[in-house]
Amino acid sequence: MQRAIGRRETVNSQHRTQSVHPLDPWRVANLLITGHGDQAINEAARRRIELWAIGDEAGAAVWTRVLDAILELRRGHLKAGEHAH
Known about the structure:
The chain has a domain at about 20-75. It is built from 3 helices and 2 strands.
């Protein structure tokens, strides 16, 4: 099975290119927030755990970047009295 990750990374069981476009985790984060709302962080964490479980450290690292992007994007929803950095 083969699937595209962003524009630069293709994943299959025989070959992995390590280059991931820097904006792709942000795009994925936006899509997850749009599609899953408050559960976006759980969905990204689930995917990261699945990849760690099968030994795909590079894939898990990409999902870690997606998780970081979700957290940063969610920070954009400031509560009363909070200030953006």
